């Protein structure tokens, strides 16, 4: 092969690599999915020998449209036209595959979050109540570990886990988000939150457990009556 032609193609490939911050063929191989042998052929001016699929991979690795990639290496227009129909199909297939991978990534992340939340369900429900008791009794040794749990709560918040009410709150009863521990209550009745509930995004994980507020009646003193004797 003509030495000057080889130098031209080598420099052209290096320029395209530099434009995306790619330092060597090994790195480009990882980005494009092409082997070192295939990339060496490109350096030697044999890019036209690549399959349509390999051209699409190389173009994506170099962050270029396929037509621009071919133009950089001065592939004749007729050759580009020969590839155009098949390349469009392959590019569409690549985009579809990328979308599927992105969706799968999101689904895996959501599944990981779901399984993690299920694994700590008991702690998640019980902890806020234990925390409320500890804060009311600062002499308890347990109060010292409250700060250690903060990173876990921050992680859950980043995942979109939102609390429903706080332990000790007086709230209006809503059967959609509240579970009565005992007794019955009408919607809107004031109840006491015993255990916090949670949502994960739009999904209800656990209802807040509530109880009726006991109203203490004031004690009545017996009325003393005087005995009247005739």
TrEMBL record:
Keyword field contains Coiled coil: yes
Chain ranges passing through the membrane: none
Originating organism: Microcystis aeruginosa Ma_MB_F_20061100_S20D
Keyword Coiled coil: yes
Keyword tags: Coiled coil
Stated name of the protein: Nucleotide exchange factor GrpE
Gene3D superfamilies the record matches: lambda repressor-like DNA-binding domains
Ranges in coiled-coil conformation: 80-114
Domain HTH cro/C1-type: 25-69
Molecular function per GO: DNA binding
SUPFAM superfamilies named among the record's database cross-references: lambda repressor-like DNA-binding domains
InterPro entries: Cro/C1-type_HTH, Lambda_DNA-bd_dom_sf
PROSITE patterns (UniProt xref): HTH_CROC1
